[in-house]
Amino acid sequence: MFGLIDCNNFYVSCERVFNPALNNHPVMVLSNNDGCVISRSNEVKDLGIGMAVPTHEVKDLIKKHNIAVFSSNYTLYADMSNRVMNLLQGFVDEVEIYSIDEAFLNLAGMEHFNIKEYAEKITNTVYRGTGLPVSMGIAKTKTLAKVANKYAKKYPKYNNVCYIDTEDRQIKALKITKIEDVWGIGRRFARKLKEEGIITAYDFIKMPRAWVRKNMTVVGERVWCELQGEPCIELELVTPAKQQFCTSRMFGERLNDIGTIREAISTYACLCSEKLRQQQSSATSLMVFICSTNGADKRPYYFPHKLIEMPVPTDSTLEIVKYALIALDSIYSDKYRYKKGGVILTEVISNTAIQQNLFDTVDRKKHADLMQIMDKLNSGFAQNVLKLAVQGTSTNWNIKRDYLSKCYSTNLNDIIIANCKRDKLFDSGCE
């Protein structure tokens, strides 16, 4: 038995936690560079504004309906996500963190108890502990739990918990679930299935298993079995190590100055190296890319990239930034204005599998000690307090975030302070 916890309108809900005035008010959160809509409150959904709609296309609606708009604040969202996941681990032994706002729970053995009551206790505890509304779907398989969760959010009568516990309820749910909404059915498969007259999840499970295996490979067959109530996808309790890391951003404005671009690329390289150390891994090679604006100044599109193999696999920010700048200098041309850049670390291996170079002149013990200090200082409330000089102080390459909220839970300067007056009935108070 599996349960799927999903935070409702997660980014919007995070903004509402620290600003209760936004409750029952239309709210939307924008993507990087304030480009398009990535999270909507129910009030915004009712206005007909869809996901991924470019911001400039809904400017009139924002003004007309007084929609509260926020730039994406991933620092805040990540911290709120961690709080949710920590609360969930107090209820069950096995939790798979599927995404920033979703988690699968292992509820094996609980089907003999009042599992719906227990699920409601979980959702209420998360709401009381974080202020975030959550929904929970429960079923025999992970795929069916995803289906159940959808209806837990859609229908208020479920009280945020939908439990598919009988065959009749399972069939009923599958008959009203569009095939493109099934977890594991991508656009290509959905288009192919519709051509075969398969419109709903129920139509899909009625197809012969042999046909599914032939036309949709083992992945489609696994989804088919899951919808039948046959568990095929187990919980992933250990996150597999990443084989590459990428940090790329749209620049806040079109750039031509090599100095400013070097600051941006240096910062992206620093972020990648931090992710490496968190995984206790090192990278063997890196790639740097930049891309110009489309048709800028009547020049052709320019998208160069450079791959560099490092002498020894490393997680040192100093080394990674050094080679990233070498790569950048080799591809930069002052004939173009650039809109985006990025750093990709590839051939990632565990720190325990590094083969040293006999002719290596780098004092890696000093590098490791320095990186440890940097990570410790930058992971506290004063985040990113320590950085390399090459990162500079310029801000015009930063992504556009005109509607950014504060980092209420991770930055001491942004913590909400409540002022209250001394009451005559009490001896203590604050001002």
**Total helical segments:** 13
- How far is the N terminus from the C terminus? 52 Å
State the share of residues found in helices, binned by percent.
Answer: 25-40%
- Pairing-aware structural class of the strands and helices? alpha+beta
Strand fraction equals 15-25%
Radius of gyration, taken over Cα atoms and rounded to an integer in Å:
25 Å
Return the average pLDDT rounded to an integer: 90
**Helix and strand sequence:** EHEEHHEHEEHEHEHHHHEHEEHEH
Shape: globular
CATH architecture of the largest domain: 2-Layer Sandwich
Query: In total, how many domains does the architecture comprise?
Result: 3
Strand element count: 12
State the CATH topology of the largest domain: Alpha-Beta Plaits
Query: Which stretches are low in confidence, meaning pLDDT under 50 for 5 or more residues running?
Result: none
Main-sheet strand order equals 5-6-1-7-8
- CATH homologous superfamily assignment of the largest domain: Reverse transcriptase/Diguanylate cyclase domain
Largest sheet: 5 strands, mixed
- The CATH C-level name of the largest domain is Alpha Beta
